[in-house]
Amino acid sequence: MNAAVTKLSGAERAPDTKPSVLSVEELEISVRTSEGPRVLVQDLSFDLARGETLAIAGESGSGKSLTSLAIMGLLPPPAVHVSGGRIRLGEADLLSLSERRMRALRGARVAMIFQEPMTSLNPVLTIGRQLIEAIEAHETLSRREVRARAIEALRAVRMSQPEARLKQYPHELSGGMRQRVMIAMAIALRPDVLIADEPTTALDVTVQREVLELLRDLQRDLGTAVILITHDMGVVAEMADRVVVMQAGRMVEQGPVQEIFAAPKEPYTRALLAAVPRMGRGEGAGAPSTAVPVARVEGLRVRFDIRGGILNRPIHAVHAVAGVSFEIRAGETFSLVGESGCGKSTIAKALTGLVPFEGLLEVAGRKLESGQRPEKAFRRGVQMIFQDPMASLDPRMRVGDLVAEPLVIHGIGSAHEQRAEVETLFERVGLERDQLDRYPHEFSGGQRQRICIARALALRPRLIIADESVSALDVSVQARVLELLKTLKAEFGIAYLFISHDMAVVENVSDRVAVMRLGQIVEMGTRAQLFGDPRHPYTRQLIAAVPVPDPTRVLPPFSRPQGEVPSPVLRRGTEPQIEALADIGGGHMVASFE
Amino acid sequence: MAAYVFRRLIVSVLILLGVSFITFFLLYALPADPVRQIAGRSATAQTVENIRQQLGLDQPLLVQYWRYLTGLVQGDLGRSYLQRTDVGTLIAARLPASLLLMAGAIGCELVLGLTMGVIAALKRGTATDQSLMIASFVGVSAPQFVVGLLLLYVFAVQLGWFPIGGYGTWAHLVLPSLTLGIMGSGWYSRMMRSSMVDVLRADYIRTARAKGLTRRRVILRHALPNAILPVIAMIGIDIGIFMGGIVVVESVFGWPGIGQLAWQAIQRVDIPIIMGVTLVSACAIVLGNLLADLVTPLIDPRIKLR
Question: Which domains are delineated in chain B?
Fold first, then answer.
């Protein structure tokens, strides 16, 4: 079947027969385990034409990253190895090359950029050194020439003041800037093939937009063929010419991007596309505005001191949350969206009494004021579900005990009643009773998040804070967990404070939404108001930056405001200027802007 | 930076004050009476009393401590009861030998420990790795007097490569440094191995390989500087461990340092010398830690001293 698909796509490209720069034939990757070899990727074939962008899309465990490492010859030795098939780069058969000859190609003819710009650059070496050594590894040039090439590469990725950047260390740059440096390193030698493994997954949405545009422009200018590995169908739709869909180590489908999106042949592709959250799919008018508030936040401020000077006294302060007020009504999903560092998670921490704050908080009729430590009863009213389900479950405790723990701490019911309650909760979140005595590592990511949800429900809270709770999950799992949250909301009469960076997910689940920037709310309203009629430029910018899973869409022009991004760090004593929110009708609140 | 050093120095002075206080009261709480040691067994009660008055040991302890502190501030460490010399002079005469020994030991630790650790990490899971780790385990657990005597027997007595004891030439330095440093090399090799194993898994190592760098360059340029960071912090702590070690090593090799001085003073309850050596050691530990903290930002640009 695969051969047929390959032929088909070859035939379709026939009119402009571009030469293939990279071809993968019946690739098989295995890992040696104590129980013998296990196949991780099998029977994968595709061709990459000059100047083309091929997206390899799939969920975690589909083998897409392994494939890219196999092409680079960087599979983690000695256990994981290519056990069959061929990879050709032009005339060279990559799998039969010696390490020495492979090294000569690596970085020069095939280059790669990785998912985590924060950890992919060496923290103790300057940008310049890392960039220059990439060039020197392949070309014999004078120091001056190498430096000129490095500066040219930084300029190509649109970094300002490239000469000064050479002397900077990675930690002095933001995530987006670091990813630019990675791209600069990868394109400095004008490779034939650039492999981008989830290049924007760790970035904020507006930064993602910039990096994607940069990649597209570079590809156009340099004619590099790009393999884009991603789980994000929005990114696929915007970037790819052709798509390979992978699942559990096998290729499911391959074809031009329009075809894959318009008429997916395989059920898996259809299911994957259906699970992708899309803007404009949100439904329901939300809770009536007359409903009683279950949570109220008034004039919330959270400040973290930065110490310095001879006496190590606080000199500066990070104003993580600067005067935020909102209320959440019974049965409502209220979302906070914004980019990293905007203070959305700090609000969650304040509401659960985990950071000192100023202002007034009220949950389920219990007040908490500045400087007060929350009493148990207050904590009982609000529970939290975190982003990483594995990290938020103690690996040495049985999952049944983990879910029962809140009941034990609050002294609710006898041991027998607690057990019965945990069993009920387990069934409610879609797990089996007989899984109670297992340990967290025996569950999948989605199941673990269900366990966290059961734990949050145990105390029957009035408010559940879901802080990026579905961000780490694959789309299909994400869709099911969101569905579960929705059912539970109706059943238990809880309200959600939903915190996310993902505009599409927020648009799908929320009744009301607040957009945050620099510790303040810039716009707040019902889902329809905010997404249908965004007023604040920042809200508009966020919405425009979201990749849309529709290859036929013409990209709206995107412009990021120039100049310095304002900082939430101020000298101690200076207070941030708080923009007042004005009601422009029907509870749609917008901060003033010029 | 200057502010940081200043603040650290102030804290250091407080630490030294605390050390002097605790040591002083502990020493005088001992049942051993220094005056008896000075006067000898046949001394009359009257003589003993006279000496006690002469040394000011009849005063309340707090008064004695206050006197000691006032002397200390003026740079006076007091006089030895038995050697009739200023403690400061005695220590100054012997300190260079001990510092030299410590420097030798640190050198030995770094060279041996780091090399073993790096090789073990690169050959992880192989027989080489296992033998190196067993060797480091033996190094950590072997008592120093045993190691010292063993080295003496093999390299000085049997092979005759190095002198049996004493002080003066570089050859004299080798065996004592090795003895003192071998335990630390064991620790360092284990630390270096685990740190290196972690670093080799890091994303930036993968990036370096993806650039097409040679293995040698990836290891030396990218892995090593990152892996060595936790080890540097350890060196500061190590100086404290050395202070215990030099007492043993200096007696085994007849090395004329402050360790021997302290050992003799302890046997004879010569409290001013014990106090002096303790304070000098405490100084060395505090300064060693400060130095280690000052070196770290030179390697790791993310660390800012404030």
Answer: 1-88 (no CATH), 93-299 (1.10.3720.10)
